[in-house]
Every structure is written in structure tokens, then in C-alpha cells.
Design a protein that fits this description.
47% of the residues lie in helices and 11% in strands. Helix 8 crosses helix 10. Strands 1-2-4-3-5-6-7-8 form an eight-stranded mixed beta sheet, with helices on both faces. With 515 residues, it is an alpha/beta fold. It has two domains: 188 residues, Up-down Bundle (Ferritin), CATH 1.20.1260; 254 residues, Alpha/Beta hydrolase fold, catalytic domain (Rossmann fold, 3-Layer(aba) Sandwich), CATH 3.40.50.
């Protein structure tokens, strides 16, 4: 977790990068003004912890000790002011991280080294505040942020004067010193895990460390760049190779790449058929990736596992993705794929009376959206829906979002990035296909298994959706796996609980199929 970024700094950098890439002002990246304040509070916790640590070290003398004590008191006041503002507006303030590795920023054994690190942190803070302040709508909240950033700028000038008493103490414009585009590298190495984040099992932590070491997070680059980078599957395979494991894909009867008709043209699908003689039950499967990233290749292990565990044909759909094809393109493709398979099960050696849907993350959203559309159109419901950490609500205010602010591989900045590149506008987020948790009526939907995990911003909304289904009279099995993170289900080769989850999911599907 040590390579993860402050939410606030990531968001400011993303805003700058998006504006640079588009040649225009970046669109808003914070859902609410309270989010801006929480990003700011993340940074203030960090600075406050730094000054407490260096003031207690005994390495500071004279004016350096005097003025850094004053600055430290300011940082505590900033924490108090932001916390009060957030609570006063009905929000939930973020907590400080469990740990910070400040030594990675420079030499903390000398006064000059401490001052150099302090200068970097203060200048970074000014850059980060300015990267987000233009999005604040509330004048009261803008006033809080404005007063803080003015103090931060003065801190920078004071520290520079302490570093070089003969230099002009007036600070340069922060844009010339440290733009939001370079903020990311400034304090990336020092943030530990979030205060409330649950610990990971050793095998899951190894995968997380591999993902973090693979390069910048996807949400700091464009979708086109992110698609060329390492995937979560690549990280799992890298871990498997380090352990000396055989990385040959799990065998199934046959695998065929083909196409089916779709609303935007032929839809690529990968068809996994179990060994034996059909007709088999069929599961139409939708991969994850926030409707923007990944493909059938990345989730190959999930489909192979379900094929064998459920003894069914799995039709994995490569639906259209944003930003090239925005909402509702992926949802239209998913529904079209389900209807085609339902009407043409013989083509796949399947039984038309035993067709289920399944998906992970955005794919879980697509799977349950298929059920909603089928209900609205009077089309036969799937016999079952398997929803693995599904996206069910366009909202970012649950405890699991707060707890997993720095989680890998998925966190709040990542979800904001996905929505930015798939939705046409924030108004799309209220559509029940994006936010099935807000659907007015869930009665009559297919029975479901809903799988969630500890270290995942989507945990709470997935479990809330499971409860809403239950309240609507739908038979639901909800299971949270502890010690694992988002994407674990697709990694049975290296994460033990992924094997358990796939086995459970397969057993639930078999029961629904009557196997």
C-alpha cells in the first residue's frame, strides 16, 4: 500500500491531465463539495502527522524549531476546521492513515533535510488545493478552502526563507513551482493504508503489491493508455510465476471465439463448453472493467472456473465500452446478448429453459440490468443471476468507500474515472440500469447470489442491493469474503478464497439449473 496516492492529490492530477489532454477545462471530478473537503482533509492529516513527527525528533533548532512549531499548530487547526465543516454539512470526515513513510521523501536526520521535505509538502498542498478549488460551488466551503490555501502558501515562503536566509523570501507562483500534473510524484511513496481498511490475507496482499508495482494507476492516464498497460490478470500471472506455479489455463471441454448479432454490429463472444454431452445449461457472462477497460481475456479464469464448477456453457461477451461508446451501449449489448442466447441456445449446445446471467463489478451491474430490462419488456427472466461485487449505485458516500479510499485495485478515484468515461453526464447515474439500487420495483427478478469482499468500495452497495432484492421477495444468497479485495474472484490460481468463491458460485448455479 505504500505506493498509493492521496485521493485529493490523485484527483487534482487527474483534473490537470484531463484538461491537458482535451485542450479544455477539465470537467468536475468531485461529486459534491463535501468530497472536496474530504480530499483536502486527507492532505491536512498527512501534513499534521509530518510536523508532529519532526518536532518530536529533536532535530530542529532555533528559528526552524520555532516556525515549524507554528506551522504544525496551523496544520492541526486546518484539520479541526475541515473536520468541523464536513460534520456541520452532514458529512463523514476521513480519518488519518495508519502510517506514513515520510523518510522516503528525504533525509529526516538533519534540519536541512527536514526543511526540504516540509517545503515539498507545503508546495504540494497549495498545488492540490488550487487543482480542485474551481469546482467548489458553496461559498461557505470555498471560504474554508481559500483561507487554508492562503496559509499554506505563506508556509512555503517561511520554509524557503529558513532554507536560504539570503534568498528572496517571496514564493514563486505555485504553478511555476509544482503544477498538479507533478503532484502525484511528490508524495506518492509515503501514504500507508487507510485508517479503517481491513487487512488482506497474505496471498491477496501479494497480488496487491504486484499491481501497485506495475505502473501508475489506470485513473491517472487516458482509457486508451490504460488499455495498453498491465491488467489485474497480468498481476495474478506474475505472482503465480514468482511462486513457480503452472500458469496453463484451467482446462475445459472446448473454447470458441465467435460473434453474435448486436445493436452496434457483431458482438465478439467467447464460448466455454464443459466436457461431456449436452445440452448444457448456459450462463451469459459479463466481464468487469468499469464499462471502459478489460475484455474476455482478462476474466478467462473466472469463465473457466464457472464452466467446470457449474457444469454449464459460459458465453462471455465483449460488449462495447466507453468513452468510444457511452451509456447505454454496454447495457444494450448485454441485453441483446442475453436475448440472442435465450433464443438460440441450440447454437451453443444449451438448454433454453436453463439460462443464467453472471458478471463481476461492472459486469455484475450489466447482469442485473439484464434482469430489469427483461422484466420491463415481458421477456423471460434468467433462472439465476450471479453478481460478484456489482456496481449498484452512482454514489460515493458509503462507509466502504471511506474505508477503502486507498484500496488497490479499486478505489474512489477509480470509480469516478470509470463513470466519467462511460456516462454521458452525471444525470445518467440516476438511471436504474446504472443504479439498480434505486430501481423502484425489484419484485420478480431472478434469484441471486451476491458476492462481496472486505477491501472494496463497492462492498456496501452490493450488500444493500442484496437486501433490497430480499425485501422484494427475491431469493438471495449474500456472501462477503474477508481478507480479499476487488477482483479477487478472477484469481483462483493465486488467491485461495477465489477458489472457494468460484466453488460456491458454481454450486449455486448448479442448484438453480437443477443439475
Amino acid at each position: 500500500m505504500a505506493n498509493q496516492f492521496s485521493e485529493f492529490l490523485r484527483a487534482a492530477s487527474l483534473a490537470q491531465a484531463t484538461a491537458t489532454a482535451s485542450g479544455a477545462a477539465a470537467s468536475p471530478i468531485f461529486p459534491t463539495d463535501l468530497d472536496v473537503l474530504n480530499y483536502a482533509l486527507t492532505l491536512e492529516h498527512l501534513e499534521n502527522a509530518f510536523y508532529q513527527q519532526v518536532l518530536a525528533s529533536g532535530k530542529l533548532q532555533g528559528n526552524a524549531a520555532k516556525y515549524l512549531a507554528i506551522i504544525g499548530a496551523h496544520e492541526q487547526a486546518h484539520v479541526d476546521a475541515l473536520t468541523a465543516a464536513i460534520r456541520g454539512a452532514g458529512g463523514m470526515p476521513v480519518k488519518p492513515r495508519k502510517s506514513y513513510a515520510f523518510a522516503k521523501l528525504g533525509d529526516l536526520n538533519t534540519q536541512a533535510g527536514i526543511l526540504a521535505v516540509a517545503e515539498k509538502l507545503e508546495a504540494t498542498g497549495v498545488a492540490a488545493y488550487n487543482g480542485a478549488a474551481r469546482e467548489i460551488a458553496s461559498k461557505a466551503i470555498l471560504g474554508v478552502a481559500g483561507s487554508i490555501v492562503a496559509v499554506e502558501a505563506r508556509h512555503t515562503a517561511i520554509i524557503r526563507a529558513l532554507l536560504n536566509p539570503n534568498a528572496n523570501p517571496a514564493p514563486k507562483a505555485f504553478e511555476d513551482l509544482l503544477s498538479p500534473a507533478t503532484v502525484v510524484g511528490a508524495i506518492a511513496p509515503i501514504l500507508g493504508p487507510g485508517a479503517d481498511q481491513q487487512p488482506l490475507d497474505a496471498d491477496a496482499q501479494e497480488v496487491v503489491d504486484q499491481i501497485a508495482a506495475s505502473g501508475p494507476p489506470f485513473y491517472l492516464v487516458t482509457p486508451q493508455e490504460a488499455r495498453t498497460g498491465p491488467s489485474v490478470r497480468d498481476a495474478a500471472l506474475a505472482v503465480a510465476k514468482k511462486r513457480g506455479l503452472d500458469t496453463t489455463p484451467e482446462p475445459v471441454g472446448t473454447v470458441e471465439n465467435t460473434t453474435i448479432p448486436g445493436p452496434g454490429g457483431p458482438l465478439p463472444v467467447r464460448v466455454y463448453t464443459p466436457a461431456g454431452t449436452g445440452p448444457f445449461p448456459v450462463t451469459v457472462y459479463f466481464h468487469g472493467g468499469g464499462w471502459v477497460l478489460f475484455s474476455t481475456d482478462v476474466y478467462d479464469a473466472s469463465c473457466r472456473g464457472l464452466t467446470n464448477q457449474a457444469k454449464c456453457v459460459v458465453v462471455s461477451v465483449d460488449y462495447r465500452q466507453g468513452p468510444e461508446h457511452r451509456f447505454p451501449a454496454a447495457h444494450d449489448d448485454a441485453y441483446a446478448a442475453y436475448r440472442y442466447v435465450l433464443a438460440n441456445t441450440a447454437r451453443f449446445g444449451g438448454d433454453p429453459k436453463r439460462v443464467a446471467v453472471a458478471g463481476e463489478s461492472a459486469g455484475g451491474n450489466l447482469a442485473t440490468a439484464v434482469c430489469l430490462r427483461a422484466k420491463a419488456d415481458g421477456v423471460a427472466q434468467p433462472v439465476y443471476q450471479l453478481l460478484v461485487y456489482p456496481i449498484t449505485n452512482y454514489a460515493f458516500d458509503t462507509p466502504s468507500y471511506n474505508e477503502n479510499a486507498e484500496a488497490v485495485p479499486l478505489n474512489k478515484p477509480g470509480m469516478l474515472w470509470f463513470f466519467r468515461y462511460y456516462l454521458n453526464s452525471p444525470q445518467d447515474g440516476a438511471n436504474p440500469l446504472i443504479s439498480p439500487l434505486r430501481a423502484p420495483d425489484l419484485q420478480g427478478l431472478a434469484p441471486a447470489t451476491v458476492i462481496t469482499d472486505d477491501v472494496d468500495p463497492l462492498r456496501d452497495e452490493g450488500e444493500a442491493y442484496a437486501q433490497r432484492l430480499k425485501d422484494a421477495g427475491v431469493a438471495v444468497k449474500a456472501m462477503r469474503y474477508t481478507g480479499v479485495m476487488h477482483e479477487f474472484f478472477s484469481m483462483p490460481l493465486v488467491i485461495a478464497k477465489a477458489k472457494q468463491a468460484q466453488a460456491m458460485a458454481g454450486a449455486d448455479l448448479r442448484a438453480a439449473f437443477g443439475n
